[in-house]
Structures are given as C-alpha cells and as structure tokens.
Design goal:
CATH superfamily of the largest domain in chain A: Zn peptidases
Radius of gyration of chain A: 22 Å
CATH class of the largest domain in chain A: Alpha Beta
Order of helices and strands of chain A: EEEHEEEEHHHEEEEHEHEEEEEEEEEE
CATH topology of the largest domain in chain A: Aminopeptidase
Number of domains of chain A: 2
Number of strands of chain A: 22
Distance between the termini of chain A: 47 Å
Strand content of chain A: 25-35%
CATH architecture of the largest domain in chain A: 3-Layer(aba) Sandwich
Shape of chain A: globular
Oligomer: homotetramer
Structural class of chain A: alpha+beta
Largest sheet of chain A: 9 strands, mixed
Strand order of the largest sheet of chain A: 1-2-5-3-8-12-10-11-14
Number of helices of chain A: 6
Chain lengths: ~375, ~375, ~375, ~375
C-alpha cells in the first residue's frame, strides 16, 4: 500500500484585474494499485455552506489510513465566484450576484447526449463489455462538456462554473456534492434507486428523489446513465451500471465545526466501506433513519411579512395544526393582531427553517418531511 | 365622451415592521360607453427599468384627450419588493435578493388550465358564442390564479408578486409589459402571430418569439389562449380570439427621460389606434423596422475577465469578425497580452451590451440580432 | 390611574414609487397625571437587530399594568430604510446600502449648540430655575434639529433618519436605544456617570464609556447636557441635570425570542422602578455584573482569511494565550498549515464574535471585555 | 538611457479558500541614473472607478519613451477586496460590503507621528540637510505604518488595505490617486499649496482643499509634512519640502475608454514635465481651468424620493433658481404633484450627479462647484 496525495490548483476564474482565482483539487490514491474506479467529492458550491470543506479536510487525513479501492478526487471550496461575494456580515455565495443564477442549477444535462451516443455506435455497442461501454460513454459525456464550454458564443458564468466542475467529476463512479441548509438538520438527497443504500451515510433523514434533472450535480451525474440504460433496453441490451450521486446536507450554513466534521466524515467512510470503495474502516453504529419521498418534502412559504420567532427547530417532530412559529407585527403592538400564528399544515419532521427572523410574504419559512 | 381616471392603491407587500407597501393602479375609461375590452399596461417589474413608468405618466395624460374604445388599467412601478432594494448606487430590482428568483420569470402558466376548462365544459362549449367562451375562460384562469395564491403551503415571493399582477391583467385583451435593457436600444418582443402587427409600435427592432412559456407575463398572457384554440380545434371548433401581449424594451435601465417618454408613448398610441382601441390619434411616421427570430437573437458571453471597453454600442450594425470590444488585463500591462479583442461572431445589430466595464467569465457582454 | 396608549405612524421615507414608509410611534401615559418627565425607547435602527422590538412589544403590555410617573414614547423598527434591505437570506440593515453610512453614526451633535444657548441667554440664565433651564435648552436643541433637517442643500439619508428620530427623542429625560450584537451576549453601554446606575438593568456586562460623541444616539443625548453644565460651571452656575441615555445590546441579530424578550423587559422595568419612573413593579433578582471601561473593551481583527471555527462563544471567559478560534485554509489541507490557531491576546470575557465562519483579513473576529 | 519595467505581484488578500489575491505593482526607472525621487500612482481603490487603470496602462507605454528623472511606481486595480464584489450588474467596490467602511477613508495619519519624530531627534535635527531630514522622516513614517499593520489586536480590513498601499507610497515625492465620480466630469482635488500647480494636469475643474486629514491618501501623504514643517518652524528651522499629492477624478465610474485614457495620460505627463520629473514630453495646449475652494464645492441632497430626470448634466453651468432635475412620483400621476422640480440653490458648475434615476430622501443628487 502506497498512498499518495496530489494537489493541483485549477484556475477557474479571474477577477477584473486579471488575477486568476482557482480551486484546489486533491487526488488521493494507492499508487501500488491501478485505480479502475473514481470517487469525486466537492463542497461549498454554495459558498457559505462550508461544513463540507471541513469534512473534506477530515477525509483527506482519514483516507490515508485506509485501504483504497478507488482514486479519490476532493475539491473543497469549489466556487471561486461565490466565495468572495460578501453581503453584510454573511457570504452571499448561493447565486450569481449579477444574474441571480443559482450556482447549483446550471450543470450540464442533455437527453440528446445518450441518444447521440447510442446512434453513433449502433453497430458496435452490443459487442462491448460493460466496462468498455462505461468508459466510452464517459468519454462521450466529457466531449459534450468540452464542446459546451468551447461554444463560440460562450456560456453564462454559472454554466461555466458548473460545466468546469463536471469535467472534474465526469469520470467518477460515485459523486458526493456537500451542501448545508440555512438553519438545518442533516439530510441527504438520494435517487430512488439508491435510497436504501443511502442509509450507510448514517444521516437521519433521506429525501428520495425521482431520476430527473432540475439542474443539480447529483442529477446531472446519474440521469444520463439511466437514459442510456433505457435506450439500450429498447435495443434489447441490459445495462445495469449507474453512476451513484448524492447531495449531502451537513447542517447549517455560515458555520464550521471540526468536531462535527469528524462525525460527518465517519458516515461518508461507512458508506465507502459498505460499497467496497475502502477497506479497513471500523464502521459506525447506525442511527434510526427516515426516508421521505420528494413529493412529501414540502416547503411552507410565509403568508405574512414581519419578525418571526421559530418555535419548531430543525430536527423537531411537529403535528398538523401545531403552532410552529409566531409572526410579530410592530404596527399592531397595541392590539390582538400583534402576533400571527403559523400552523403546521401536516405532521412530520422539520428539516430546516429560514435563518433570519425578518421575513416577507413568500419567504421559505420551513421545509418539512411529511410522515407518510 | 366622459373620461374618468380612478386610482387605487393595491397592497402587495409589507415590510418587516408590518407596514403595507402597495402599487398604484390607474383605471381610465369613457364612462359613457360600456367597456367590453380592456388594456393592461405595467412597468418596472424589474425595478430599475424605470422608463416605462415615465411612459405611463405620459399615457395617462394623452389617453384623456382621445376617444377610448377600451378600459385602460395602468400600473407603474409594479414591483414593491424590488423598488426598495438598493445595491451601491444602483437599484437591484431584477431578482429577489434572497433567492435570486428573477421577478419576471414566475408568472403563472399551466397547460392543464386550458385542458381542464375544455374537459369541464365539454358539452356546452360548442354552443357558446366566442364572446361567451372568452369571458368564461378568463373567469376560469382567474380562479386558477386565486387558487394558486391561496395554496395552503403558500407560494414564493416572486410567484406571489407575479400571480397578483396577473390577477390585475387577466381580463385584458391587450397586455403591455414595459421593460428596459442594460445599455440598450429600443426593441420589442412579439409572439410570432403578432410580429407584423408589432410594427405599429414604431420600434426599430422586433424580436419574434415562438408561442411557448418561459416565465414572462407576455407569454403567460397569450399561451393559454393558443392552448385553448388548439384543444378546440381538435374538437372541430374554430376559435380565433387571442390575448395580445408584448414585452416592450424602452432603452437603458437606471434612467428616465420625459422627452423620450413622450416619443415612446406616441408609438404605443399608434398601436392602440391601429388596432381600434383608441380613436382620434394623429399617428406617427413609421421608421424602418427589422424583425429577428428569437433563434437569431444571440447572447455573447465573455470568455475573459477584465475591464471592457465597448466599441460597438447599442443600435450599431456590426460585421462578423469585427472587433466590438477590448478587454484590459492589468496584470499584463507591460506586454502584448494587456488587451484581448472581442470579435463579433456574426453580422447583425447590437441590441444591448452589459452596463459595466467590469466583467467576469460568462458575463453577458452583448446581445446581437443576427441578420438573416 | 387612567393609562392611555396612542399610536401614530410617522412618515419618514418614501420608496421610488412615491409610497410613504413610516414608523409606528406608541405613546403611553397616565392621562390623570401631568407628565413632566418623558422616556424614549427605540429599537432596530440597525434593522436586523430585532430583539429590541420584541422587548418593546412586551413593555407596551407591562407598562399598562404599572403606575407611570412619565410619558413613554416607544418606537419599534425605527429604520424604514434598513428594514427593506435584503442581502441573501439576511437583512443588511446596518448601513445605507448606497453610501456605507452606518445608520447609528449620524445623529446630530454640535458643541456649538450649548455654546450658542449660553451666549444667547447670558443675562437671564442665572435667574432660571433648573426646570426652566432644562425646558429652554430642550427647545433650543429641538430648533437646531429642525434647522438641520430644513437646510437648503439637504442632509444625507443617515442624517435624515437620525435627526428625525432625535426630534422624537429630544424631550426625553431617559433614552434607550435597543440594539443587538452579531453573535453576542447581552451587554449595555453606559456613560461613566451612569455606569453604576446601569446595574439596575440586570445585564451581566456593562461597558462604561467616556462622555464624548462618536455618532450614536446615547452620546448625542447626554453630551450636550454635559457641555451645558461645563459652560455654566465656568459662569459659576451649578447645573446637575443630565439626560440619561444607554445603548442596550440584547443578544444576537437576525433573531427574536419572546420568552427572552419578557426577561429583557423585566430588566428595563427594574431600572425604571429604581429611578422612579414607574411604581408597582415587583423587581428582579440581580445577577453578578461586570463593568469594563471602553478602553478595555477590545476588538480582535482577523490576521488571516479562511473558514473559522469559533471555539470561544459569546459569554465565555477566556485566558490570555488560550486558543479561541481555528482558521481553516483549504489550499493546505494536505499539510500542517491547514489550521491556524487564533490566540486570546488578554484575559477577559468574550462579549461577541463574528456571525459567519467566512472571514477575510481585518474581519472583526471577537470583541473581548478585558479583566482589569 | 536604459529604461526598465519591473512587475511584482504583491499579495494583499486571501479569499476564504486561502487563495492569495494580490495587486500588480509596476516599477519603471532609468537604470542608468540613480533615482533620488519617486512617483507613486494608483488607481481603482474604489474598484468600479476603472478609468485610472486604463490611464496607467497608457502611462506605462508612454513613460518608456521619455527621459525619466524619477522612479515610477504604478499600481492599477489596487483594491483586491473591492474588485470581486458584485452587486447586480455593477461593481460595489466603494466600501467594505461587511462594514460599510469606505475604502478611501482609512489611510493612516496621526499627528503624533511628526511630534514623536521631532522629539526623538531634537538634538540632531538642526544639523541635518533637508535631504537627510526627508529621508529620515520617510523612514519614521514607514515604521509607523509597519507598527500599525503588526498590531497584536490587528486592524480592520479597510485599514489593512489602506496601510498596505501606503507602505508602497511612503517613499514617493509625488502621489496620484486616480478615481472617478458617479456621472461626472473630470476634476482634481489639490491641496491649497498646490492648487495653482495643479493646472498643469489640464483638467477643467480644480477643487482646492485645506491641509487636513479626512481619511484619503492624498491627505495622508501631504499632511504629515505640513505638520513637520510647522513643528520645525516652532524650533526656528525652515523646512520647505512637501510631498505632493492629488486625487484625480477621471470622469464616470463603471466605464473605461482607451481613447480618453490617452488624453488623460497627456495631462499627467504634462504635469510631470512641468515639475521636472520627466523630460522630452511635447506638452499639451491648456484648456480654461476653474479653481473652487472646498467650502464652495457643495452637495445637493434630495428632499424627495422618486424617479429623477437629470436635466443638468456633469460639466453644465447652472444658474441659481434653474430647474436642474425633475422627480417623478407615480402615486400622483393623475394630478399636478406628479412632478417635483429640483432647483439649483446657487450658480456654478455641475461636477457630478447621481448615476441612477432611483433616489431616496438624502441621496446625493448633485455636486456643484459654486461660482465665487
């Protein structure tokens, strides 16, 4: 066993003076073994969601003490645009400050990618081994990413960021995108076909999402492979390989905690061990885990502007009809309209709430995983 | 003729103290005639795009001197969320500062609206006059808007703003949404079926857009009627009524000019006169007008960060291969890399460019209407 | 006893549409007694510092159950400019988003005010009773405020806000300006001559400040009276009356808690009872209180950019040399420079720390009250 | 003559990932001559004020073709904090987005610096040549800057930026700080003792400022030398050396124009030639120049919120009583209050106006140099 850690600074951005601003990319592998498998982990594409970077810090240490059955590519603080964007005392790293484009909604996905691949290789595809098919489709996807970034008319900033990150991730068999919520408990988004396996992360709440594309990296990673399998199935070819991808939500934004990061990393290592990507990890004791379908993961938008006291906190169980928040209206401090109660519309678990007491009509007050 | 001007303050927002912030709604009609037709005009849903409000100011005066064949509903400064949002010396009224949601992308449209209407009225629909059909479908759409705003779990702030504005616009037969570009020449978005008629506005550049929905008010206004006509056509019923809707781009943001607003209003009045909504307007001399299909209206995104000198200005004709901008890189001031030239990828008309010299990779440098 | 609560909406701002945005002003008094004394309490001039508004809500209720020896003027959410200014998911209500002017640094104070008053009334001043002197100087200060707001060339937005609020406060004998810190424990700024009396508020940490003006309301309230007393003393007239004024810091920003607001209000009521402004309040059990001179209340600015884990929290005692924070540098995750430790430069109490893990060089990491 | 251009990247900032962000520093000198004199020129400390960087680009070329009697230190885009801070489509590089601290108000100046220098060298100072005195006081000031940056408790971000830039400028005999206004004509701030000499820059409007410190680099550069001369004068020592320093305002922000930059650079070269710092420059034809005392350079703050049409533009002469702007109020579009006229309070020249039509009460509408 001979584990190496390589570090590279990938230039991604320049500021207006012309200075290059890049992202550190760490590659960890056992140089004594050929790595046929790759794991890609990035953090903080929403720049204020920093806990994932602390987890990557812990993983870099811990992976070096384990037996590695894959090459690991780790990219902390992967958004050089967002991480310099201050707004008052906080970091507005959630969307492009110029356009409003969410940094996590412009990854590349095109249904035509799988279609053109199958069409171009119609005669040979049946003769390829699964390994060859996987390798050739990855190469095909990589070309599509390059073509996109190289377009004569260019791409927008979020597309540029997202597509460039995807070029780093496109060879991976497992993709983890580390995020946090606003004031949030830990939860994980897993595609339906991985919802059960996701339990190995040892995170209390799993949100099981359908295989479709709404712009995020996890979706962009697994959806083309499901597309490909369907097209092949129509040709009578069975193809079971899938890229595995998860969005992991590690608590609250604007915060890091190294002690908790150690805990978070143990969950990741447990998953890696269970799916055979590392060996030698001692394991963790699994907590009780709830899985909620995306359709039952609901957002409660405020119907009132005012100052909000959040009575139900992230992680709390709430019952339908329960008062979960109070909105204070300072123009009515002398009468009974001073307080408006916010009622839980269903029974379930509070996954997150808005991080400020100051809300307007339409503010995303709570996200609740409803009991099925 | 007895023209009345009514003013109403429609509450739409509260600030966190509880104070209501509303929008002024002006209604102008000839009270001596029953108004079977309605025209809806709003401005500044992107709050820094103020010139449309100056145009509404001029229209309110001018309409009172004409013969009116419709009721006019005019809503200047229609975005009470955006118009208080300052960012340095400018107004960031383009998107929700909390979420990045573009204030012009969350209007309500659902293909199911026309479907449910036809299904619910299957037996009677063939017996209705066009007028009755129009009136009943408007009422149906209005109910859908109300249902959306009243959802138990609420809607987000942009949806709340957009849907509330649509409730004001839903009875209109003509909808004008007044915008501006960044550093921009005047242009107008017209649905294909109105591209020719749009010439009456006397605006040099028309962008002809397909009938489909990407979130804006004009699309949300006419698309359901095209849906309805298609469904009726499948049932053998011909239905030619369409709501007419346009997005009008009145030059550059962060600016008002009353002299130019007078000119702008004359184009609007000319359109109204030509389609029979007013009488007694003297008309204007038409300028030369170019119509470009949306697929030929292209955005040039920057491939470099730096300080940009815009050589081609809004309204300029440019040739493929022409140097239209120069990007200055202050880290290379001592060598030939100090300046990178930006080349026009096609021949056409510059409609707008970015309003600041400071750009990053992916900044929308230019929008160009390509010669066909 | 016949307590009345009056409410008034004082217009202070307009948005660009022309809509007036005001502040609610509550006046509570015993109408059966002439009120020779006035108390002024405002909150949230830094708009995200909302807890004071919750405290005012509680005070409005509680005052009605007590015997009042003064008129109470209460102004929650007193900053209509700041309270609409969103920045990501937080409220940037700390400074004018256009100019950077801190909303709490532009109150009016001019040493010449006391000088001109003494000069103008040189002959009569010795013959006035203290009450008459107080009343006349208040009127003089009020005129100066009016003159300032009415200047031909105008005043800047922060001056306009601050001076207008001062017009509401200028008759008060006691002024409380309710604030919060970022991530903060409760503390109170008291002028040296009131540092001991400030203990009645029952807040653990008192910062004793010299009588001088740095822009805030408390300083603007008491400094002219100290000026006046000095000038009179030079003329051989003893004048002991002082306006009392405090800035009260009620925990952390972006947050309200009604339970805690009840506690906070009891401290205020205790002070009011002790200085004779109310009767009938049951009192509170005093906690242990530390007083620190302003010169010993020190800010620790970060010398490193990175992601910070705050090990010492608001309210913690720290020792000189203790590691109070760790800064994570993601470009050094593979070596020992990954973590830089932040050391307490002195022994004392952490009053507050920065609310985000994301810091740059020069970020105000901690404020520490040093043990004397 | 053997002119060399050296380039250095001075690290000044890191982003939260740990990546260093620096400023390019160009040094141009004739290596065949010992440079006893130094010129320091920086641009864009307010990051959106970019035209000065284009001027430095031109100067770097032009200086190489002249005879140099000094070493030139040129620092374009000198603010790595501000130049990444986007706010909508503009660059908010005017103040620290966290604190509101203006990036041009935290340069180091302390009256005690000259005092301690004189006191420390009381016995020897009379025996020093002027050159020695200058050299020793520069070294003294440099030490003070180093002590400040190295303080145990640190300094705030604006202090860090400003003091670091001052370390680059402290040896210079001439300091030029290149800025722009919002929508502005060219003007220059000159200390009274240089107001006449400032005409060589060939800029139409000179603002003559008293020698005192309000936070800017020009003031921080020359004030200590005036302090020193006064203290020496009290000891009977005549000392006429002064650091020369100017703030040059090169038109409007958010914009660069290379053609105009060429013109701007000719003015700078003309000054350099006239004061003997270069030779061989052909000279320029001087325009008519007006000098205004700072007390006559007045700001007109808006008394109304609304949408403003600026009738008087930068560079225009206006007469007292003239309507220079109109404020539109959309809540009064149906009556005579729709427009409020803004009147020039005095006769003079409009130097700049606010760059947006959207204003609030207290917005800095115009700055006018009043005719004396």
């Amino acid at each position: 066993m001979s584990i190496t850690v390589e570090k590279q600074l990938v230039t991604l951005n320049q500021d207006i003076a012309g200075q290059e601003i890049g992202i550190p990319v760490y590659r960890i592998a056992d140089s004594s073994k050929p790595a046929s498998t790759q794991v890609y982990i990035q953090s903080a594409v929403h720049a204020a969601e920093m806990q994932g970077s602390a987890v990557i810090f812990k993983l870099i240490k811990q992976l070096q003490a384990l037996e590695l059955n894959a090459e690991f590519v780790l990219v902390p603080n992967c958004n050089p645009f967002g991480r310099t964007q201050r707004a008052g005392e906080y970091l507005q790293g959630r969307f492009d400050a110029t356009t409003g484009n969410n940094w996590n909604r412009f990854y590349h996905y095109d249904q035509a990618d799988a279609e053109s691949f199958v069409e171009d290789n119609l005669d040979e595809i049946a003769h390829w081994s699964e390994a060859e098919l996987v390798s050739r489709f990855k190469a095909h996807l990589k070309r599509k990413l390059t073509e996109k970034v190289d377009r004569e008319w260019g791409v927008n900033t979020a597309q540029f960021l997202n597509t460039t990150l995807q070029q780093l991730a496109v060879n991976a068999d497992l993709v983890l995108d580390l995020h946090t919520g606003p004031s949030s408990t830990r939860h994980i988004y897993a595609p339906e076909f991985l919802a059960e396996q996701a339990q190995y992360f040892n995170i209390e709440n799993i949100i099981s999402i359908p295989v479709s594309f709404a712009g995020a990296l996890d979706e962009a990673s697994f959806t083309p492979w499901v597309d490909l399998a369907e097209l092949l199935s129509q040709k009578g070819i069975e193809f079971s390989y899938r890229v595995k991808a998860f969005t992991v939500e590690l608590g609250s934004q604007e915060n890091i905690c190294l002690t908790q990061a150690k805990q978070d990393s143990l969950g990741v290592l447990n998953y890696l061990q269970q799916v055979g990507l590392v060996d030698g990890f001692a394991g963790v004791e699994l907590t009780e885990i709830t899985t909620t379908l995306l359709k039952d993961y609901k957002t409660l938008f405020s119907k009132h502007a005012g100052m909000v006291e959040y009575l139900a906190k992230a992680g709390d169980k709430v019952n339908k009809g329960q008062v979960i928040a109070r909105v204070l209206n300072s123009l009515e401090f002398d009468n009974d309209s001073a307080i408006t109660e916010v009622i839980a519309p269903a029974t379930g678990t509070v996954i997150l709430h808005y991080p400020s007491a100051a809300v307007q009509v339409g503010t995303q007050l709570y996200k609740i995983a409803i009991d099925s």
